[in-house]
Amino acid sequence: MGRAFVYVIVGGGVAAGYAAHEFVKRGVSHGELCIVSEEPVAPYERPALSKGYLLPEAAARLPSFHCCVGANEEKLSPKWYKEHGVELILGTRVKSADVKRKTLLTATGETISYKFLIVATGARALKLEEFGVNGLDADNVCYLRDLADADRLVDVMKSCSGGNAVVIGGGYIGMECAASLVINKLNVSMVFPEAHCMARLFTPKISSYYEDFYKSKGVKFIKGTMLSSFDFNSDGKVTAVNLRDSNKLPADMVVVGIGIRPNTSLFEGQLTMDKGGIKVNGKMQSSNSSVYAVGDAVAFPVKTFGETRRLEHVDSARKSARHAVAAIMEPDKTSEFNYLPFFYSRVFTLSWQFYGDNVGNVVHFGDFSENSFGAYWINKGHLVGSFLEGGTKEQYEAIAQATSLKPAIQDSARLERQGLGFALTFLKPQDSNQQSKTRLNLRDRVWDLP
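Request: output the structure for the sequence above.
Response:
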């Protein structure tokens, strides 16, 4: 038993939805494309799960956040796929892949063959058991990666209103879930081993601002230690969190956000791996010419940095998916993927964006007593990264443009005084020809700011 398609996307997350949209925009014929997904619903915007989905009132629910509403484009409901002749094979796990034979074998025993495959398998949440902590079966220990996780988290939150929630991890998921827990009237404690929250991205000064804001909302931070074990009641529910520093935290529920691991097992031993993901070239093409890979599961050349990296964010998933489809459909017209790393988050009344790389010396600017401040990262004499809290659309575009050009910086003290104004100089209106010339000139210019 089997089916054959020209194009197959394995995985049903954000990247799959954006890839399907790009295929249709580029004229794929009815019946040529299918998506094979373990999830029971059509691809959706995962960021909604840690934001609007967890709100106590007017919460986001499907079909409102199917792809591609996150990029302000049309919503790809199940009806959209049907109307455009895209086959959705949902609730189906792919058991094995054979890239030489160009086939996938599902858990139900069906063989699906392809001419071109896009791997959009994403990543899975790391579990506590992988670090020697037991608690997988506890009803009140939650993770957040997919819709089923989010539904479970909502149910547990509702049953614990007014109780104690412990968040394990101080990264994206930890910070965004902690905010949602507070809004749902839980007493929140965050536990992580680092010296400050969002340690992979934020400077201590930036982290301090967000930690102070969270503290004003009642969140407690327990830093520099880790979870060692749980206490359970007779029903198997967690009642307390034991830490390595011997402290014990009462817990009515626990949310775990300790990182992710790319879903690459189907292709290990068949495709070249790098940085924990499937290695691809600038057209998102793997070591097998018929297989492309996108999103969290891929390591690709980041031209801005001159090195291969694996990035874990929705923006990269969306854009790499579109680029892979372009490279498949029009290989001669598609250039190398030129991506500026972009990260963002929105919690409470706060909203920040980051572009580029957080290496080198940091120059902070703005008013940290208000929610309007930022930072630049200078490495080897050039601007390589920019961060801004509380910006406008124009201001965020400015820091993105400035970072993409990597201008030379001569005087950090002057850059600090100029602050956001430095980035805004890159947004002066120009005609297209002049703008092209300006981009070349700005790249070589040494910024000796007044």
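Confidence is low (pLDDT under 50) at residues 431-450.
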